[in-house]
Amino acid sequence: MPSALVTALSTPIRRVQALVGPGWSGDPAADPAAALAATRDMLADVAHSATQAWQRTSAEWAGAGSDAAAQFAATTAAAIDEAAERASGLGVTAGRAAESVAAAHQRLQAIVDDFEARAGALVFTGGDDEVTVRVVVRPSGTEPKLKCYIEIRCAGQLEQARARAAEVQDSVAVTFGDRRVSPASSRRGDEPGARTR
To answer: What's the domain of life for this entry (predicted)?
Structure first.
């Protein structure tokens, strides 16, 4: 569960995510791509029915009136077919737009999740072949304060590293007041091998 501070910091991203929306719902009645596909199918059926009706009528009709009616029927069927194609193209575009919106929504959720996971503890690392340092700063889960953990690993110079760490600890105690906690009395489980200061 993220802290109140982390939640406050992630709220603007959540607002953007809400503005983007999830894409179209699973309800076909609310999905423009599905509605446009249904419109395309309906128009294609109308064009097919009109063509068949004219073919049945034209067999018994001849002359100038028949020719004009045939031209009108062909033009009408072509216009309906063109409208069906446009509806199909709009449906494809709407479907792609819905997929893009859904992908953006999911990406924003991933950003929020990643931020909240990382913001729960700030981790700094550094070092070289001989010495590595890891500092973890995170809010306390039970008190209104920050906890800092420092881990120093030295290759083959453990005693010198312990002596130097004691010097640094003494210097910090003089500067900030003696708030040291011995390794035996420090709480376990917060960070493996770390001492709470």
So the answer is: Bacteria
The whole domain housing 152 covers 122-176
In the structure encoding, which two tokens stand for residue 187, read together?
A: 């709480």
**Polymer length of the chain:** 197
Judge whether residue 154 has pLDDT over 80: no
Question: Which pLDDT does position 51 carry in this prediction?
Answer: 87
What tokens appear for 15 in the block? 């607002």
29/108 same-domain check: yes
Q: Helical H runs in the chain?
A: 4-20, 32-58, 64-119, 158-176
Same domain as 55, residue 21: yes
What pTM, to 2 d.p., does this model score?
Answer: 0.48
Show the tokens assigned to 36.
Answer: 């446009």
Domain boundary, last residue among 119, 144, 163: 119
